[in-house]
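Recap for those who missed Tuesday's class. We walked through two folding examples back to back. For each one, the amino acid string is listed first and its predicted structure tokens come directly after. Nothing is annotated here on purpose, so try labeling regions yourself before you check the end of the notes.
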Amino acid sequence: MPHFRFSDYCRLALAITLLAPAVVQATNGYQLIGVGSYQKSLAGAVTANPGSAMTAISNPAGMIRIDQRADFSMEGFMPDRSVDFEALGGEKNDSDSDLYGVPSIGWTAPVGDRTDLYFGGGMYGTSGLGVDYSETLMMPAAASFTGNDLIWSGYSNIAFWQMAPSLAWNPNERLSLGFAVNIDYQQVSFEQRIRDDVTGARYNFDLSRSANAFGLGLSLGLLYDINDNVTLGFTYKSKQNFTDLDYNLAEGDIDLTLVGGPVYPGGKYVLDLDFPQQAAFGVAFRPGQRWTLSADLKWIDWSDTMDKLTVEGPEGFDFAMDPGWKDQTVFALGVEFNVNDHLDLRAGFNYAESPIDEDNAANNLILPAVIEDHYTFGLNYRFSRWELGFHYMYAPKQTVTANSGFPGTSISLKEQSAGINLGYRWD
């Protein structure tokens, strides 16, 4: 059996990550419903049904169930985002940039000659969000509080990556336990601008000079076989605590003259953005040799990290972004059919109510994470030691219309993604 070094996989994963576009588009809030084609094709219903080395990020206990394996996945995300000011007398605009690459790599292998203890991990693109809106008529002169046309533009980029060195242990034949250290990296930038088309007065909130931060958290996982046909799974991921995002701004990057405020000086501005804790319970049922049915129930604590966001800066600057996100309860169902010794077919459905409601839509023009329904399909073909997988996901258009702030303004999002997975298994 080949000998694998954790450092080798880290170098490869990091190289792949740095070559990929920085922003991804995600679906449960700004978190992907699954990592890699196996998880995505089952709509994320994998807590009790691990099937690839990406299980280190979803349920580390699963590593010991899939034995010695490495997986590389590349996903192309195709979001369709729009903002609509027509209720204010303005225009509708679609975001630029509609294709993003999301790579991930994972592996698992026994510790020495032991069969009850496995070590693994990888690097995964798990979350992200982004829009790029050119200048758009927000309010015509007749409706504007300035008496002149108001022009709006917006940009955002949240990219989130995780490494997850993990251990899995079988204390007995029915029970598997897993533990992972989550080492996180995120890149975040925001920009919103409104200008008076005649006077030039502005409302600038420009954090487009991207800032980076590192975070740390833990994951715990469990798998328990009730019998040969039913497996229960549970996983808990702690809040990922990040260092501050530091933005070195120039004078005028924060400009509130449009609303009677000052032009703020250049200097260091700080945003604290953590990633939420979450927990999932799953069940896998195998009614026969060819069928596997799986279901997940997941909770994501968005209200802790995406309800109140504050940017602090010089001269007592204290700006509340306050996206007002609610917690999400995610329901996921997956089905797998083993056609023969080589071919598996998979399908799934994932639903979670949007974390953004009508009261907060106006605060999320550049954060339109409103998707609710996801339909997935995939297949996997085994050659010998090698496997080739494919998935496709479709998330129909979801629109939320603001009832305050800028009443009638709406944000919309529709998504598609397709990806491949290359796996290799050692006996």
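Example two. Treat it independently of the first, because the proteins are unrelated.
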Amino acid sequence: MGGLTLNVNVMFCIFKLSTVALFMPYAAAFYEVINMGLNDTVSAERVHISFFGMRNAGKSSLVNAVTGQELAVVSDVKGTTTDPVRKAMEILPLGPVVIIDTPGIDDEGELGEKRVQKAKQVLTKTDIAVLVVDSTKGLGRFDNMMIDFFKDKKIPFIIAYNKSDLLNNVPDAAKNEIYVSAKDDRNVYELKEKIASFCKVKQLGKDIVADVLEKGDTVILVIPIDESAPKGRVILPQQQVLRELLDNNCTAVCCQVSELDATIKNLVGKPKLVITDSQAFEQVSAIVPEDIGLTSFSILFARYKGDLKQLIDGARKLKELNDGDTILISEGCTHHRQCNDIGTVKLPGWIQKYSGKKLNFEFTSGTEFPDDLSKYALVVHCGGCMLNETEMKYRIAHAVQEGVKIVNYGVAIAQMNGILDRSIAPLKF
């Protein structure tokens, strides 16, 4: 019986490990589902606070002290944190945030270098950085390297000198410095206050669409329910737009493409705006009269957390493609792809047809976004609803810096349907 019990236990462990491995590509989606309720602030709308530092500086201990929970594994063994650890939570006085604990930036060997690269990757989504330094040792070479990264990427940062309980005399701290002790909770509250004061909190009053509407306006939301629509729910951009309309005392009417014509005719007055899923632009634009404003969820998000002017400029590149050009199609999430997936199936087909060229396509998803974009003639990016504003703007700026045009799904589809000017006309930017 003992042998049987052992074998069963071993099999169960193998099952658990294989299950974890199977679903690792969907980790971001699972993270949202498991750790957040329906009424919680989504990760993309939270302030991202990332902790960096050398091994054994006490990053994880300080993260646990700041969050008030055992978020990160703590050990005297160097390199305990092997991958970035994320946690969505509420921290006063900041409110909803994402805390990220990163691997040691001085890790060694081939595996260590990969961990360091993961830590650097976190910078693209970081709103404020906390550099944790062992106060008994002071700033080291790797610490100064990270400070250079922060400055280069214009990320506000604080240097938290940890283990100050071991100092005989605590020096005076500069404006962006603080002496703390995760061990005895010294100045941890003060660190949170300093983070709040340094943080580039999301622009108050920034709207997705409400700034182009007035109280009492009627807006039609066209939400196709097809093989790509998630069962039992609407996708995040649609949820966010709907809630913003309700918050601003507008009337929101939702329908599918097949009901759009009847919906417009049944309204007592004209709707101020029609917002559609970009995939339905062709059908919707043919139905909506020219005197009614028309745009898409993707274009709204291009303005909300991206750089709409740069993306419009990128759309012009679609007509300038040449045979053999390689196009990167990048998505910010890792959703389960359907047989008629927009990113891997529909868009490549539409772009080939519109350009009249034989093109090559490559695809990335989730946190993966190439450092070297030189091989690409164009980057086509999703609306970025699962990315925070910092990361979305980084990706656009990175493409521009590399001399590569970038466009998002909605802007590209509007361009290919000959309605780009019409679809951006209702917007301020």
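Answers for example two:
The chain has 15 helices and 14 strands.
The CA atoms of residues 312 and 411 lie 7 Å apart.
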